[in-house]
Design goal:
alpha/beta; Tyrosyl-Transfer RNA Synthetase; Structural Genomics Hypothetical 15.5 Kd Protein In mrcA-pckA Intergenic Region, Chain A; six-stranded mixed β-sheet; 19 helices; EC 6.1.1.1; nucleotide-binding; ligase; RNA-binding; S4_RNA-bd_sf
Length: about 375
Amino acid sequence: MDIDQVLTRGVAEILPSRDGLIKLMSSRKIKLYQGFDPSMPSLHLGNLVGLFKLRQFQKLGHEVIFLIGDFTGMIGDPSDKLIARKKLNREEVIKNTEKWKEQISKVLDFGGENPAKILYNSEWNDKKTFKDLIDIASNFTVQQMIERDMFDLRLKKNEPIYLSEFLYPIAQGIDSLEMEVDLEVGGSDQIFNMLAGRTLLKTFKGREKYVLATKLLVDKDGNKVGKTTGNALFLDSTPENFYAGILSFPDETILPGFELLTEEDLVGLEEKIRKDPMGEKKRLASEIVDMLWGNDSVEPSQEYFETTFQERKPKYNTEVDTRGTLALTIAPYTSLASISDAKRLIDAGAVEIGGKVIKDTNYKPKSGDEIKVGKKNFLKVK
């Protein structure tokens, strides 16, 4: 892909101007980054959109930084959140990143002549003094913060807004200032936060910073296909479950999926989708599985989907030990890998044993029990 394609495909907006960024990229190699807060133990399909855009810049020879928000992750980004996020401590945040390098190495190149870099924003934010914070925060107003949609809705619903949430865009802006980047990449829901970094760079360094906002991968209701909307696909999943998860998305996500997560030619694709949506969705799932797990995983993943979901002949070949109760037994196989998520699924009637819905979280699984967890996990008790 050339500069024009990278700055067009899957891009919602470029600020302050696309022409300015083209001119800069044509004159020299730029430094760019995207930040990822470790609020969960795994990256997810929504994160893959940003990773794929970073890879495109890396292929053009630009300096790419994958920034882990181990400091900002303790605050929690309030963007699009109608309630405050659960606060995490440093230990929880660091633990969540344990598998990240392995996951992002499937997309970004950390070797060769132009290796991507991993940085942590605690490296500089931990050192900021209260005086530093006052100096930096004086470049923003309460009005700027309060007019954001999610805060306005919270006020109307009498939901609390914490001062730490007001400071989140400032903390994210400090990242741009400290790394002195030319460009920040993020989803279109991150524009406000990304522009905070532009403000700080212009104020303290007298230099420009560009913002590239990617389109969001959304479902039929306009909700992000990501970790917090209930339809998440995590990168620590199996290729079979990831493939099946993509096939569960509504047809309207096929075209944006190809645009955001592949380099496939989009010419004529809309007509192909209209004629054979299932076939094109399988092709999309195959492309993504190939990128993340290799071509050898594509055919088994397709066979698993067709046998399990199209022919409705699931294989209960994931053997598990009983942990006393149903909730404890299935917890590792839920989306959040937690007991609370297991209890939620059981209460919602999304867990079956021997084809019967079980709503008793304290049910004691027996050897030979075949347990269906949600739509994609099929377990057999040893």
